[in-house]
Structure formats: structure tokens, C-alpha cells
Amino acid sequence: MLSIKTFLCVLCILVAKKKFNAHPFTYHEEIELEVSTLTNLGLGLGRVSVEGRGVENWVVMVPFALPGERVRVRVFRNHKNFSEADLVAVLRPSPQRIVPRCPLAGRCGGCQYQHLAYAEQLAWKRRQVAELLEHLAGVHFEVAPVIGSPREFGYRSKITPHFALPRPDRELAIGFLRQGTRFDIVDVPRCEIATGPINERLAAVRTEVRAAAAAEKFARGATLLLRDAGGTVTTDYDTVVTEEVGGLKLRFLARDFFQNNPFILPAFTAHVRDQAAASGARFLVDAYCGSGLFALTAAGAFERVAGVEISETSVAFARENAAANGIANAAFQAGEAATVFAGVDFPPAETAVVIDPPRKGCDENFLRQLLAFGPRAVVYVSCDPATQMRDLRHFLGAGYELGAVQPFDLFPQTRHLECVVTLRRAGGGQCDSIHSGEE
Known about the structure:
Elements: H1 4-19, E1 30-38, E2 43-50, E3 55-63, E4 70-78, E5 82-92, H2 118-137, E6 158-159, E7 162-163, E8 174-177, E9 185-187, H3 196-214, E10 222-223, E11 226-229, E12 232-234, E13 240-245, E14 248-253, H4 265-278, E15 283-286, H5 293-298, E16 304-309, H6 312-324, E17 330-334, E18 351-355, H7 364-373, E19 377-382, H8 385-397, E20 400-408, E21 418-425
Parallel strand pairs: 3-5, 15-16, 15-18, 16-17, 18-19
Antiparallel strand pairs: 1-2, 1-4, 2-3, 4-5, 6-11, 7-8, 7-10, 8-9, 11-12, 13-14, 19-21, 20-21
Helix pairs in contact: 2-8
């Protein structure tokens, strides 16, 4: 007689097969292929041709496979013009393949590149930014070498492990999503990219959570927070933490957004400041200012600085941070970034604007207002170069020119990076519409 667990597994397989599109490969069919490149999602990409099925140069995406490798993979999904597969075996490894530090590499979805030498990670990230710039913005431009993190591991100052609804038939998994899944959680007793203090605190947090789960104190799963601020780790979302960047001490709530690699922040913020100041602007607007990271680290290079942020608590901290660090030329206001320029009295021709939008990029309302304001220069910071390059078309269509494209690796061992694009107004004047992005 089947156990409940076995029955559920069989049921899941039957449902998956029923929904599976069997062209060009059957469910879990194993094939061999040569990996030719890496996508900006960190996936190996190869092409195969199958005689008798009318398939030539069919694209197959494979996580944890590297360019130049021959691999055996197991197909789990066919799309209209490509397939997704799991890596089964590396038949001919790349010379750049290394042994991952984390024993969970290949299962945990948090890191995509632990098996790739760090210098090669930086080289591929640079290439991926250049490809996105060409394909999404239609521009050929020299992308600067990626500035690497001072720490390849142990750099992340915030992690958010998850756990699902506790079940009596198995030990509670506390960790991150399994690679390629939306709900399955891999148990992570230690995270190699997190700081040492976080890993020390993580062990105690896991014990506390499991004890509470055994006492049936959870009605659902949850997301935990561990944030390290100079060696002191908090798990309380409302705790005030302090981060030191370039001699400034910045305070904010543990739950608020703040860059999670403090070791690279001095170089990162200095580049943003220097790019904005190099335009010759006298004034600076930080349109997504948070608790004041870019505005305050750049304030010394400008006569006046204005910051705007939707979070009122972050604005309160930005004001406190300015006062605590003796910065008198920076003012902050709470409000939508899309209405920031209505209250800015800086002359556009003498103003630089720093924007660091969410991963989804800038919305059209904000772009329309920014381009109508027509600043002297824009320094666009993004954690997603794909949406950044999409937005770039609007700036180029409105008369801005590329000055620099500088990636920073705030996230070693993962596919993620930050990219700073500098744009300068070509001929002066203002623009009251955004470019359609059409060729």
C-alpha cells in the first residue's frame, strides 16, 4: 500500500505529464549538448538538432552549465521556441569550472555561479551588460570592466530565509527556494555568501523556529530577517541599525531597503558621486533616496542636494543622518518619485539627477517628468540591467548621450549585479516627451 508521501509524489508526476508539451522532447528525456554561452539569468545555453523531429538549432537552457562544456541534461519543460532542462552530468568540463564552496550549490536557487571562477564571473557579467545594451537599447558602447567585490564570500549583510507550513512527517526546512521551483524550500543551515555574524546567529534562529514549530505556534510559513550591522545581527524588522559608508554613519530600520554588500559601498557610492560631479552640475537630486545613501555620500561635491523617497520612515532617517553627519546642504522630502520635480527649484542646466529605481525600472510617468525637467546629467543606478537598458532608449531619444557604463559586482556567486550608467545632455534645452523606443 502506498504511503501518503509516495502517493502525492506520483500524483504530482502524473499532473506534470498531463500538462507537459511533448514537443520536441518527452518529459524527462535525457539529451546531450554543447553549451555555447551564459544568459543574463545565469543559465547555460546550448543548441541541439534532432533528426526525424524537424528540430534544428533548438535552444536548451541549463542551470549550472558553463560555456564550452558538453553536458547531459534532463528536459522538464518545452516552450514555443526553447526548452528548459536540469543538469544531469558534465561530460567535458570547462577549465573555468571549480568546486563550489557550498555543499548546497546546484540545489539552492540563491547562487548561480559558485562553480565558476570569480574572474570569469566578472568577465561574463561585463559581456552580459554589453549584450543587453546592444539588444535592448540598440547601442554599441564600451562597457567598463566590472568592479569586483572585496569579498567573494561572506559579504551579504542581510538574508531572508523562508519556511513553509510545518508538517508533522518531516523536519522543518528553513532556507531558500530550490533551483527551478516556486515553492520547494532547501534547508540551509549555513549561507556561504552571508557574513560570519549572520551565520552564527542563523544557527540559533533555526533552533528557535523549530522549537516553536514543534509547539504548533505557526499556522503558516514565514520569512525571517537577519541583518548584520557591524557585527551585531538583528532579527527584528523594526530595529534601528547603523551602517558606515565612506566615513558616514547611516541609520535606518532593519526592514528598509539598503544595499547588502557593505564592503563595496565606498567605491560604489564614490563612483556615483564622481560621475554626477564630473558633469559640472552645481546641484544634485536623488530621486529614490531611501535613508540618504547616495545623496549624503555625494553632498560634499555639490552646493545643494535634494532627496525624495516614498517611505516616510526612510526620509525621517535621511534627515537624521544628514544632521548626525554634519551635512547642512541636503534636504529630504517624502513623496512619490514621480512628482519630485514639481518641488525642485534647481536650474535644470546646472543639476544632476541620481536615480536608483526598483528592479522593474522607471515607470513612464516618472520618465516623462524627468525628461521634461531636462537635467544636465543623469546617473542611473540599477540592480537589473535589462530594465535599465530598456529605459535607456527613452533618454537617448530625448537627446542624452552615454558617458559611461560601469558595472559593480555587489553580488558575487550570483547572476545579479549593479550597473551605473552616466547620461549627459547633448545639446542643452528641455524635452517634454519620452521617446517611443521605436527604431
